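LOG
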Amino acid sequence: MLLVKKERFIMAREINHVIDQLSKIEASSNERISSADIEMKEYALLMEQKTKEFDDALEAELTKKLTQIKADLSAENADELNAWRAETELQLEKIDERFRSRHKQIAQKILETIVRL
């Protein structure tokens, strides 16, 4: 009986040792999980900051490009408008010149058309 008690005592001590080891493993695991959570939060903040920096840089670049495109289009439109104006003025000068050189003939035709009616 004494032998059985001794074996039970040894067995209880071994079980307690196993339980202690499991408790240490659990504590270490909890520390690692906690540390991983902290690292994940720090990484998430870093990624959020990097994303914002990227978005800001992209927005600035797009704004710069759009401004340049608008300026180019505005200059192109102004050039085209000036060309149309010059063409229109040339056409009007030709019409005016034609009228001046033929105004007597035109007036005569108008008079003849009115008299026929």
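LOG (cont.) second protein
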Amino acid sequence: MKSGILILAVLVLTIAGCFRPVPKCDDEVAIDLVKQIAGRELTKQIGARSSQNFSFTVGGIRPMGTDQKTGAQTCGAQLGVRASNTKRSESLSIVYTVESTDEGVRVSVHGLY
């Protein structure tokens, strides 16, 4: 009987270890990925040299929904874009999705154009 309980406990812990929790909207990893994606998009639009003058902030983060099957989080936020050479700042409303994959965290950003 004790060996059956031990085997069951090991099986439960093994299966539980296979599932990664989905990060929340304000998770540091998710926010860093949003900034990286914004930087890549800006580089595509204006070139690598010019894009080095810009920095990004993510604020006003709010959860908008959760996919019941995957646990993916849909989030809204304000993306702040600041040019270091002119000190000018702009803000964009964006929507992003955060989900866990076998490789780690995946973020998709909408509203960067």
